[in-house]
Amino acid sequence: MTVLAQLQRFGVSYSRDRAVAPALADVDLDLKAGEKLAIIGESGSGKSTIALALAGLLPSEAKLTGSLVWPGYPDRPPRAGRDIGFVFQDPGGSLNPVFTIGNTIAEVVQVNRSVDWHAALQAAHELIDRVRLPDPELIARSYPHQLSGGQRQRVAIAAAIAGRPLLLIADEATSALDTIVQAEIVALIRSLVEADGMTLLFISHDIALAASLADRIAVLRSGRLVECGDTRTIIQEPKDAYTKQLLRAHLAVEA
Ligand SMILES: Nc1ncnc2c1ncn2[C@@H]1O[C@H](COP(=O)(O)OP(=O)(O)OP(=O)(O)O)[C@@H](O)[C@H]1O
C-alpha cells in the first residue's frame, strides 16, 4: 500500500493564556492509501488534533514541529471539503438549521464539482439514496430538526462524500448515537469507503467499535502514540500497558 500521509516526529502545541500546551508530541504515523485506520484514546489525547492537522484546519496560532507530508501530492496537499471529507460527532452542529437537507448537500456538490444547481440537486438526491435514507425526495425537502440523530448523521456523511474525497475522517461520528444506530452507521461508513476506494481515518474512544471497522489501530495517550498495529494484533496481543487497560475497561463495561 502506498503512503497517503506521513507524520514524522510530528507535534502540535496550542497557546492558551500565553502558555504553550503540547497536544501532540513526537508522533510517527503513516496513513496508507485505501486503508481504514482507527485512532483511539481517551478524551484530550490528541485524536482530533491529528485529524485537523491532516485536513489543514488547525488554528493559525498552533505551533507545529516535525513533519507532515503527502508523498503523492508534493505541490498541493489534499484540501478539506473536497479531497478530505469530515464527519463529526454532532451532526446537528454541522448542518445549517435553516437549509433543507437537499440544499445543504447540493451546495457541497456545487462547490466541489463545478455543476449547475439543477445537477447539484439531482446529485444530492442520489447521495441521500446512497446513505440509505428512505424517500430521498421527502428527505431532501426536510430540515435537520425533522430528522432523527441517526438520520442526521447519514445526511452529514452524504455531505462529507459529496465532493468525492480521497480521505474520509470520521471524528467520534457515532458517539452520540445508541448502539444499534451506531452499528448501522459504522456499516454504512465501511460500505461507502470500500465502494469508493476511500481511505478512512476513524477516530473513537471506543476500542471495540474501532476494532469492528479498522484494518489498523493507533493508540494515543496524552499526545503520544503508544502503539500502532493491525487490528488483530492490537486486540489479541497488545504490547502497551495503556492498550491493555483500554481493553480491560471495555470488557468490564461489556460484563
Ligand atoms: N484550539 C485549541 N486551543 C487550545 N487547546 C486546545 C485546542 N484544541 C485542543 N486543545 C487541547 O489539546 C489537547 C488535545 O485535544 P484533542 O481535541 O485533539 O483531543 P481528543 O483526543 O480529540 O479529545 P476528545 O475525544 O475529547 O475530542 C487537549 O488538552 C485540548 O484541551
TrEMBL record:
Pfam families: ABC_tran (PF00005). Gene3D superfamilies: P-loop containing nucleotide triphosphate hydrolases. PROSITE patterns: ABC_TRANSPORTER_1, ABC_TRANSPORTER_2. Its main location: membrane. Residues 7-247 form the ABC transporter domain. GO terms for molecular function: ATP binding. SMART domains: AAA. The keyword Translocase applies. It is found in: Cell inner membrane. Keywords: ATP-binding, Cell inner membrane, Cell membrane, Membrane, Nucleotide-binding, Translocase, Transport. InterPro entries: AAA+_ATPase, ABC_Ni/Peptide_Import, ABC_transporter-like_ATP-bd, ABC_transporter-like_CS, P-loop_NTPase. The keyword DNA-binding does not apply. It comes from the Bacteria. It is a peripheral membrane protein. Belongs to the ABC transporter superfamily. This is ABC transporter ATP-binding protein. It comes from Tianweitania aestuarii.
